[in-house]
Write a structure and sequence with these properties.
By secondary structure, this protein is α/β, with parallel strands linked by helices. It has 2 domains: about 120 residues, 3-Layer(aba) Sandwich (Rossmann fold); about 180 residues, NAD(P)-binding Rossmann-like Domain (Rossmann fold). Helix 1 packs parallel to helix 12 and helix 5 packs across helix 7. It is globular, with a radius of gyration of 21 Å. Bound molecules: glyoxylic acid (2 copies). One glyoxylic acid binds next to loops. It comes from Piscibacillus salipiscarius.
Length: about 325
């Protein structure tokens, strides 16, 4: 019987379908990632891995996993997987696109609103018993409506963010490798060169995947070009940002605030410099974290594995 290794504890109801036809081995903790050494042991006899974005699936894994046919990542991003190594070893890689678009766009817009209107800071203010009177500029933040939103990376999640922004009467710019003419028509968004978008936007929202081209793209030079009142939002991958440069930009007033759902090294600890700043709203990488969507992501990963092991085409291969 083909064997599947699941790198994190998942609900039995979600993986029952796999247990019917395959032998399933599962890391028994939901809140602890599997150590690399343990992953290497477990992959030795596996035909498939259902992986999380916390696992680095590299050449070492493919060398050990001689029977491996598919790695199904429970994420739309797959920068944790060495795709070239996978190809070399004839292993199919799949991700979970589409099912998380709306949920991730909701979180991204929530983070934008929370950062602009200083909601986490205001919540703490009340809970810490600091609210002594209404005042004219108490927790006064930035408007969102009628401002310019610049979306960097106009894939389906970027477009779902743009759609939300239309309801706030925002002026929407986007930058992407390819023009999205349909989105331009349907959402009234305008293509802009990267530099123009950076200079003109009140909110710069990063939605681009982490690749060799996008790594460290938000650096000192870019933050300096933004408006002093600009708010930077990132819910894609931390590696697209030089965090030291973002910290300096916030300290120097080159930009106003940042809302971050992702970081270069996750999890960050409470002494991370960015957390010292009241104008930073930080979340623990929860873009797609609704119960329904997480269940759909598992379902899609399960489907991809079943199909490959049954000799069929996967639903959502990454290449
Ligand atoms: C989450 O970050 C994902 O890539 O699905
Ligand atoms: C980034 O701007 C991209 O091309 O997706």
């Amino acid at each position: 019987m083909p064997k599947i290794f699941i790198t994190r504890q998942l609900p039995e109801s979600a993986i029952a379908k796999l247990r019917d036809s395959f032998e399933v081995d599962m890391w028994p903790y939901e809140d602890q990632p599997i150590p690399k050494g343990e992953l290497l042991n477990r992959v030795e006899s596996a035909d498939a891995i259902l992986s999380m974005l916390t696992e680095t699936i590299d050449e070492e894994v493919f060398l050990k996993g001689k029977q491996l046919k598919v790695v199904a990542n429970m994420a739309v991003g797959f920068d944790n997987i060495d795709v070239e190594a996978a190809k070399k070893h004839n292993v199919i890689v799949t991700n979970t696109p589409e099912v998380l678009n709306e949920t991730t766009a909701d979180l991204t817009f929530a983070l934008l609103l929370a950062t602009a209107r200083r909601i986490p800071e205001a919540v703490d203010f009340v809970k810490e018993n600091k609210w002594s009177t209404w005042s004219p500029f108490l927790m006064a933040g930035s408007d969102v409506h009628h401002k310019t939103l610049g979306i960097v990376g106009m894939g389906n999640i970027g477009q779902a963010v743009a759609k939300r922004a239309t309801g706030f009467n925002m002026n929407i710019l986007y930058h992407n490798r390819s023009r999205k003419r349909e989105a331009e028509q349907e959402l009234g968004v305008q293509y802009a060169e990267f530099d123009d978008l950076i200079k003109q936007s009140d909110f710069v929202v990063c939605m681009t995947p982490l690749t060799d081209e996008t790594k460290n793209m938000f650096n000192d030079d870019v933050f300096k070009k933004m408006k002093d009142a600009a708010i930077f939002i990132n819910s894609s991958r931390g590696g697209v940002v030089v965090e030291e440069d973002l910290y300096q930009a916030l300290i120097n007033g080159d930009i106003k605030a940042a809302g971050l759902d992702v970081f270069k090294d996750e999890p960050i600890s409470s002494d991370h410099p960015l957390l010292e700043l009241s104008q930073v709203v930080a979340l623990p990488h929860i873009g797609s974290a609704s119960v329904d969507t997480r269940m759909k992501m598992i379902e899609l990963a399960v489907d991809n594995i079943s199909r490959v092991l049954n000799g069929e085409e996967p639903v959502t291969p990454v290449y």
